[in-house]
Amino acid sequence: MEKKELLKVDGLKQHFPIKGGFFGRTVNHVKAVDDISFTVYEGETVSIVGESGCGKSTTGRAILRLEEPSDGKVYFEGTDLASLSKSEMRKYRKDLQIIFQDPYASINPRQSISDVLNEAMEIQNVLPRKDRRKRIIELLETVGLNGSQADRYPHEFSGGQRQRIGIARALSVNPKLIICDEAVSALDVSIQAQVLNLLDELQDEYGLTYLFISHDLGVVRHISDRVIVMYLGKIMEIGDKKSIFDNPKHPYTKALLSAIPVPDPDREREHIVLRGDVPSPIDPPTGCRFHTRCPFAQEKCRVDVPELIEHDGMEQGHEAACHFVEEIASGQLKPNYMETASF
Amino acid sequence: MSEQTAGASSGEKAYNPRLELYKGFWKRFKKNKSALVGGIVVLFFILVAIFGPMLVSADPNATDITNKLQPPSAEHWFGTDNYGRDIFSRIIHGTGLTLIVGFVSVVIGGIVGVLFGIIAGYYGGKVDTIIMRLMDILLAFPGILLALAIVSVLGGSIQNMIIAIGIFSVPAFARIVRGSTLSVRKLEYIDAMRALGASDFRIIFKHILPNVLSPIIVQATLRIATAVLTAAGLSFLGLGAQPPTPEWGAMLSAGRSYMAESPHMILIPGIAIVLVVLAFNIFGDGLRDALDPKANK
């Protein structure tokens, strides 16, 4: 079966200028996202994971042009969104929607729920005015709310319910791709599961594609088909869920995965503790971004930027940006330091 | 089924959440006793401005030289001035003028200032810099001096005084609204509207303006007090209302020469100005506490 490319990000960069001095000159840039490329196929769920500040949310926002990307191309069904004018982009916005992290900040507190959904449909001209009311009730029921709650205001709903309203708003314009920006991070675990299941059901029902941005590896493992691991504005590793979780190749991915808590107090496991802090994205390290903290770092890592490629012994579509994937796997390269903690 | 839904939704109407919000506001406002008193005094002056002139029979501009400079008495409650005019009648007739000058100038300054502030806060960057530096220039002048300069350029009349006070109210509104806009604009629902393709016009007027309204209302109330004071000051200096208009500041100015023998000529309009300004200030502070419970700890 041929997979259809829905979204193709090519060389995306997002550099935020830092203004300083008396005249507000640009002194430097925060390189939040620095030259990343990936493809999302129709009907799948791709997750972007990474620590806070690695540029995962910025990537989502740049795709939607909530912040204009500095450079690069974002192809949606073959059209480069980044090169469209603002008014042309407006037409495409119907196909790409976003669900936000904070359910308390993502709905205008002065609008009733039916106003919120009605306005979304009005902006994109989805339905004639007279049919909208019926559709609003339908949408609320789709996301697991009661149609009779349509005229209530946001403050009368709980966080989980509000998140469902946010999902209903995104659905109201019949999108093809939904970017979930930490969509369940602010909810408690039982509600998280409900919302994730809802997203799952909606995907089956409407054939949606998700770009799921999260720092929560447990959630990512549950929902994704493929996973992108980001560090300091660069993609470190990309692959299907199974490859990433069971057979990580990049030292950063390994360290990240070792941080997932295991609900078994008796199980001994290795916990890789990385040395130092994440360097500043204003002045990121040369060569491989991770070399300042990587236990396997060599001279080459300081100089050459590793390409994101498929190395020997990796499944198809599984790529890692590391010079020494084979050497580390074969045990030829020993770590320079080993700070592990067992729990 | 559809009938059932209709029935349910009309049943929901009885419970109006917006009404609940206002009830909460009223509850907090009532608790603040001084604000309540301020509100009542403000209301009192508004009623006097509307109905006073109908109830007071004496002509505020009728002179009676034989009865000049009379102290307060049963016949002339607030006494008479140097032309024998009834001060009580002049105060009552001047109330409307005072309030209108306050309201209209604040409305003018408010509309312009809110627009400037919201545009500066929403677009940021160069637009923000240019607008806000302009506001800083206006703010650098002491208020009365700026109004004085504008009135001297335009010429002394009530209309020009209103315009002058309006202009000098602009930066206060622009600053407050810019600040609130900056914080609202960062919220995710604004991003959601942008992701839906909403126009800037829709976002600014439908989603930002209603959410920055409370500081605007508070600021407007406080600004009315300042405007009344400035108007009185300008009239006192002879640049606002021209005689024989019964304007409080002008009355104060007229009484200056008779301060020693007839202190009531300056005391009465002075007290009237103080009362209105104080009432609006206390009322405004109370509104602020009631509209923003978080600021009240």
UniProtKB/TrEMBL annotation, chain A:
It comes from the Bacteria. SMART domains: AAA. Belongs to the ABC transporter superfamily. Keywords: ATP-binding, Nucleotide-binding, Transport. InterPro entries: AAA+_ATPase, ABC_transp_ATP-bind, ABC_transporter-like_ATP-bd, ABC_transporter-like_CS, Oligopep_ABC_C, P-loop_NTPase. It comes from Bhargavaea changchunensis. Residues 7-257 form the ABC transporter domain. This is ABC transporter ATP-binding protein. NCBIfam families: oligo_HPY, PRK11308.1. SUPFAM superfamilies: P-loop containing nucleoside triphosphate hydrolases. GO terms for molecular function: ATP binding. The keyword Nucleotide-binding applies. CDD domains: ABC_NikE_OppD_transporters. The keyword Acyltransferase does not apply. It holds the Pfam family oligo_HPY.
From TrEMBL, chain B:
Its main location: membrane. The chain crosses the membrane at residues 35-56, 99-125, 137-155, 161-177, 224-242, 262-284. It comes from Bhargavaea changchunensis. It is a multi-pass membrane protein. It is found in: Cell membrane. It comes from the Bacteria. Keywords: Cell membrane, Membrane, Transmembrane, Transmembrane helix, Transport. Signal peptide: none annotated. InterPro entries: ABC_transport_permease, BP-dependent_transpt_permease, MetI-like, MetI-like_sf, OppC_N. Belongs to the binding-protein-dependent transport system permease family. OppBC subfamily. Pfam families: BPD_transp_1, OppC_N. This is Nickel transporter permease. Residues 95-284 form the ABC transmembrane type-1 domain.
